[in-house]
Amino acid sequence: MNEFANKGEADRLGKRGSYRLGALGRQGVGRSEPPRAFQPSFARPAHRGSIPAWILAGLAATALIWWAATAGLWFMPFVIGLVTGIVIRWGGWRLRVSVPAVLVMTVGGWGLGLWIPALRGLPIGATGRTIAALAGLPASAVTGIAVTLAVSALQGLAGLWLGRAIAPRRARD
After folding, report:
1. Does some domain include residue 115?
2. What is the pLDDT of residues 114-124, one digit of tens each?
3. Does any domain span residue 60?
4. CA-to-CA distance for 105 and 90, rounded, in angstroms?
């Protein structure tokens, strides 16, 4: 017989309770604390800065995206999302507030950049139809404009993600 297994161990094989599963404790790993219970709070969140200042900053960012869209700076939604991601860490805002804010700023800015020239009589619809057809999408002005606004929104969300990733977290009190 092998020096590592004796006859008593061979006789126990296959019998109930012989394997002692669960009898060994964790080896080398300390016990983890149980998760903290959720405690709802009805107190107002502690945000830095006033609400009107944040709204004014959002309107300024929308205007900057509109200006950049008319100037041909197509990447400005990403830059605004990046700055927003960094600033909301400082301000203590959550994603459920910042994601809709970035979407409104980016889509609103590019929407203004497309809508105002259309009011002046420029062929925005025809350009959108041509771009959609060249992209292999249905040749419709609505499709071209919707894709443009969707790309703007995705750029803003990617910038928001990167800004939150590189910004240091606020210290908890």
Report:
1. yes
2. 898 888 888 88
3. yes
4. 19
